[in-house]
Each structure stands twice: as C-alpha cells, then as structure tokens.
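Figure 3 (text version): structure tokens given as input.
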C-alpha cells in the first residue's frame, strides 16, 4: 500500500440550474479556479444522461455507452485530476493536455416509475432537470 498525505484546500458549492450542461459548466469552473486535485460530491436529477459502464478485461476495456432521454435521479462522487492524455474510456476526444478530468461514479435511478431499476456506472454527461448541488473539496 502507498499513502500520500493531502490537505484540504478550498471548498466550493456549485448550484446548477435547469438545462445547464453538466460537464461544460463543471470543467469551465475547474479551469477558472485552477483546481488541480479534489473530490466531488453531488445529488440531483438529469433530463438527459450519458452513462458509461464496463470494466477492464484481459482484452482491454469492455465499455458500454448508454443514453437516456427521460429524467433520472442520481447520487455520485468522483475526483478531479489533470492527465496529459485523455483516459481511454472517453474514446476519441480532442485533448490539448493536460486538461481537467472529472471522473464520476454514480448510482442512477431507473427513470420515472422505475426506481427499482437502479444502474451504476460513470457519468458521461447530462443536462440538468432542476437545481442540483455539487460540492468540490480541493486537495492541496
């Protein structure tokens, strides 16, 4: 095991509005505040959701991409880093590296009237249904 001591830096609370572009707003904010590392916590609902699920196998990444156009509730946590190259799960994206990468794991409801259909995976992107609170705890 390897351990690194980090200290808590700034704490931000972002309040999204209905229709906001989740990662567009978040990445802009992370760049603007130059948050180089941190933890992200959020709870809310999306009207459009892109979700990535899968795992790394002996043959590489077994990635499944899902797109939902009905509203879904989610609870999620993640981390902020600035890799030189895009993570493989993002696929073929333009990257001028290093760029902020907010990696979020989530539990997502099954949609209206289908709460028993909870899914887990990575948040690929989404549009907000209503107000959402996201907190960032910067690590220094």
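Below: residues designed for each position.
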């Amino acid at each position: 095991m390897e351990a690194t001591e980090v200290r808590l830096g700034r704490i931000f609370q972002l309040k999204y509005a209905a229709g906001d572009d989740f990662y567009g707003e978040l990445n802009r904010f992370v760049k603007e505040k130059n948050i180089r590392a941190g933890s992200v916590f959020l709870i809310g609902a999306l009207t459009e959701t892109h979700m990535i699920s899968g795992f790394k196998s002996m043959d590489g990444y077994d990635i499944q991409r899902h797109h939902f156009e009905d509203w879904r509730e989610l609870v999620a946590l993640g981390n902020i880093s600035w890799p030189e190259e895009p993570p493989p799960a993002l696929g073929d994206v333009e990257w001028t590296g290093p760029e902020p990468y907010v990696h979020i794991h989530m539990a997502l409801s099954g949609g209206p009237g289908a709460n028993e259909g909870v899914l887990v995976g990575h948040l690929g992107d989404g549009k907000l249904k209503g107000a959402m609170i996201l907190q960032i705890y910067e690590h220094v």
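The chain has one helix and seven strands.
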